[in-house]
User: Fold this.
Amino acid sequence: MIKKGRGISAIMHPTGFKGGGDPDQALLKLKPDGTVDLLTGVTDYGQGGKTVLRQFAAEELGIDIDMISLHNKGTDNVTWSTDTAASRVTFIAGNAVIKAAQDFKRNLKRFAAGILNVDADDLEIDGVKIYKKDNPEIATTYADIGAASTWGGDFVVGVGAYLVPPAAPVDPITGAMDFCAAMAYAVCVADVEVDTETGYVDVVNMYTGYEIGTAVNPLLCEGQFDGGAVMGMGMAIMENLYPKYPDDAGWASSYTDYIIPTTMDCPEMKNTVVEIKDPRGPYGAKGMGEMSSNPQAPAIANAIYDAIGVRMDSLPITAEKVLAALEAKKNRI
Assistant:
C-alpha cells in the first residue's frame, strides 16, 4: 500500500566560524593596460566564490566585472584566507574585497592628482574615468594611470582585511553572545510516498525557502539550492558510509555500496529566496552554502511520520529501517 505524507522543518545556520576570529585579506592592483588583478586565498571548488568576489570588487569600483581577474593559485603568492568553509567566503572574504576596493580608489585618486596637478579631494571617479569635480575635462583613465604608474616607477594597489572579532564571554545572566558573523534561515516542506510492503520511500516534492540576506548572484544561489536539496535528500534516504552496520566490515568502498541520488531520483523542487539585508554583510549578504543541504532530512523524516505514523531516528532512512519500524509498531499494538 502506498501512503502519502507531508513534513516540514525549519533550521538556522551561522555564517563563519562559530565564535568569530577568522580573518581574510584581499589585494587589488592596477595593471599597465588599466585592468585590475584581485588576489585572494579563497578556494573555489564549484560554489562560485571567484565570481562573487569579482562582483563585489566591480560593484565597489564601479567598473565592468570583465576588467577584473581573480588570482588564487598558490597560497605563497596571494593574500591570507582562513578557510573556504563554514559558509564564510561571501561574507568574510567579500568584506575584505570591498575594503581593498575602497583603499584602491583612494590610491587611484592620489596618483591621478599628481598627473592632473589637482588635489585628490577634488577628484571624482566614474567607472574608469577620474576627473575634477568642477571641471570634468580635466580627467584621466584607469588605462592612462596604469601605464603612467608602471613606467613611472609607482604602483597603484588597494589592500583590505576583515575580521569578525572573537566572541566576548557569554553574558552570565541572559546567556547572550555574538557568536557568529550572521545567521541565515531555511524551511523545507517535503511530500513523500511510502510503500508499506517494500519500505521504499519516494520523495515527490520539496519546497524550500531560504533567508540569506542579499542574493548577490541569484543564478549561483539557485544552483546551490538545487544541488543542496538533492544532497540533503540523498543524506536522508540513501547515503550510508556503513551499509553493513552493525557488522563492522568497513566503510562503503564504491558507489555500488554508497548510493547517491541521480537525476532520475530528483523530486519536483521549488526554491524561494527571502532577502533581508544583514547590517554587517557585504551589500547585505549572508553565507548560504552549507545550509542548502540541511533542512531536507528532517522534513522528509517528518513526512514519513505523517504517512505511516512511525518516527525514524537515524539516517539514512532505508527501506529496511522503514519495514523494521512498521513491524515494531504492529507488535506494540
Q: What stands out?
A: Residues 89-116 form the longest helix (28 residues). The chain has a mean pLDDT of 94. Helices lie at 49-61, 89-116, 142-151, 218-237, 296-308, 319-332. The chain is about 30% helix and 25% strand.
